[in-house]
């Protein structure tokens, strides 16, 4: 039998659109698999959509009520044994970003628990290759769709770095709603050896105008960040780009943050409506900041950096006004009491699952009232490094 690491080489040499076919062949030849299925998580993170031929997905399964969904939610292999044999459901993820589930059906005599690690290695290799393949094929992107995306939503999802990310110092997850018709809300992150840079954005307007505005601002922020500029210059460059294009007629609210991984110190520029809530030792509270002008509202706005400290065990929530300003049928804002309950109710979930859960509770708070704005939730768990101070400075 070939060494397991040879799978990576086989997948690298596969045609992008034939990646799943190659995985199926490898699993059949090496492990005797008689059934292999790849299910992509849809944009709303509520369904698992099988990759097939056309239109590249078949009948979906629920993330919440299926064996495959159990593996996806727990991010651990889940083994089911019945008369037909053994089916191993494996999470397909990259650095904490949950993409799919790989289900492998095996004869009973072909499965042994000590092979579980090898099968997970195949799923991990597949996850990395899917991210690369999506540059050259639409097969996996089409399979993620439970329905058609609006053009604005297409632009926004392509702009995201991912939907979750894990490092020893933190776990991070985000979600946008309505998933298939999002327009102005967006988030972005980038990590280095010493820092995590995180932005959450809320572009004004609706539809494609809001998506174009957000794309301009995020691209300008990335351009400045990748040019080695600090937070103030990043904000200033993006501010000038938006104002130069729209002359103050459109602007974008933003939180721009830089987390120091060794110390937990956060530099932040608060330029508008996205807000922060913190869960620390069971207490939910808003993080109060000095609000500055949104990007592009006026010419040559001067931005200043504020600072606060995160401690190991802190959980931060970054929310757009489409979340905290939503009113119940009785007129109570979500941020008044319901948000604190939702934060408490989801405290045992990992950050990759929290945004979806918060948005589901938001829908219950809204009742039958139609959403008037798109919504964004980003959740960050801060672990810090072993030498990080454990008391607030």
What number is the mean pLDDT?
92
Coarse morphology: globular
Backbone CA Rg = 22 Å
Helix content: 25-40%
N-to-C order of helices and strands = HHEEEHEEEHHHEEEEHHEEEEEEHHHE
Overall SS class:
alpha+beta
Order of neighbouring strands in the sheet with most strands: 3-2-1-6-5-4
The first-to-last residue Cα distance is 57 Å
Residue windows where pLDDT falls under 50 for at least 5 positions: 389-393
Strand content: 25-35%
Number of helices: 11
What's the story with the biggest beta sheet?
A: 6 strands, antiparallel
What is the β-strand count?
Answer: 17
Outline of this structure?
The protein is globular, with a radius of gyration of 22 Å.
Characterize the structure shown.
The protein has 393 residues and is an alpha+beta fold. Helices cover 31% and strands 28% of the residues. The strands form 3 sheets. Strands 3-2-1-6-5-4 form a 6-stranded antiparallel beta sheet, sandwiched between helices. It has a 6-stranded antiparallel beta sheet with strand order 7-8-17-16-13-14. The chain has a 5-stranded antiparallel beta sheet with strand order 9-10-11-12-15. β13 (275-280) and β14 (283-286) form a beta hairpin. α10 (338-345) packs antiparallel against α11 (354-366). The longest helix has 20 residues, at 207-226. The protein is globular and about 70 Å long. The model is unreliable at 389-393 (pLDDT under 50).
């Amino acid at each position: 039998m070939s060494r397991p690491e040879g799978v990576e080489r086989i997948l690298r040499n596969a045609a992008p659109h034939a990646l799943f076919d190659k995985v199926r062949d490898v699993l059949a030849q090496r492990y005797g698999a008689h059934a292999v299925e790849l299910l992509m998580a849809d944009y709303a993170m509520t369904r698992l959509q099988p990759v097939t031929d056309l239109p590249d997905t078949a009948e979906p399964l629920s993330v919440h009520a299926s064996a495959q969904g159990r593996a996806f939610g727990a991010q651990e292999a889940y083994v089911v044994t019945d008369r037909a044999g053994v089916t191993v459901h494996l999470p397909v993820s990259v650095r904490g970003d949950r993409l799919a589930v790989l289900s492998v059906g095996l004869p009973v005599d072909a499965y042994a628990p000590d092979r579980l690690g090898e099968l997970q290695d195949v799923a991990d290799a597949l996850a990395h290759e899917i991210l690369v393949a999506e540059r050259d094929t639409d097969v996996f992107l089409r399979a993620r769709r439970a329905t058609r995306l609006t053009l604005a939503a297409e632009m926004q999802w392509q702009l995201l770095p991912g939907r979750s990310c894990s490092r020893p110092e933190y776990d991070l997850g985000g979600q946008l709603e309505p998933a298939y018709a999002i327009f102005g809300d967006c988030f972005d992150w980038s990590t280095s050896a010493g820092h995590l840079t995180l932005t959450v954005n809320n572009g004004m307007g609706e539809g494609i105008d809001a998506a174009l505005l957000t794309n301009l601002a995020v691209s300008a922020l990335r351009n400045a960040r990748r040019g080695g500029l600090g937070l103030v210059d990043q904000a200033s460059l993006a501010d000038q780009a938006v104002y130069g294009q729209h002359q103050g007629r459109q602007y974008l609210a933003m939180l721009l943050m830089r987390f120091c991984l060794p110390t937990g110190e956060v530099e932040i520029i608060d330029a508008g409506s996205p807000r922060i809530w913190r869960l620390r030792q069971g207490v939910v509270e808003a993080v109060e900041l000095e609000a500055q002008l949104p990007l592009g509202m006026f010419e040559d706005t001067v931005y200043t950096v504020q600072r606060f400290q995160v401690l190991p065990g802190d959980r931060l929530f970054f929310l757009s006004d489409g979340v905290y300003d939503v009113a119940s049928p009785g007129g109570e804002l979500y941020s008044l009491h319901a948000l604190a309950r939702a934060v408490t109710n989801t405290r045992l979930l990992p950050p990759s699952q929290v945004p979806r859960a918060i948005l589901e509770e938001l829908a219950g708070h809204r009742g039958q009232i139609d959403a008037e704005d798109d919504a964004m939730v980003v959740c960050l768990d801060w672990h810090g490094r072993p030498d990080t101070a454990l008391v607030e400075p």
